[in-house]
Amino acid sequence: MSFSRWWTETIAALGDHLPLPLAALLLVLATALTATAWYTFPAWLPRRRPSPHRRRATRVGEHTAQTTPSALDIPPPAAGPVGTAPAADRLAAEGRYAEAVRERLRVMFHQLTDRHVVQVRPGMTVAEVVAEAAVNHPPAGPPLTAAADIFSQVWYARRPATTEHDHQMRDHALQLGDLLEATAPRQGDDR
Question: Where are the domains positioned within the chain?
Answer without folding.
Answer: 3-41, 71-183
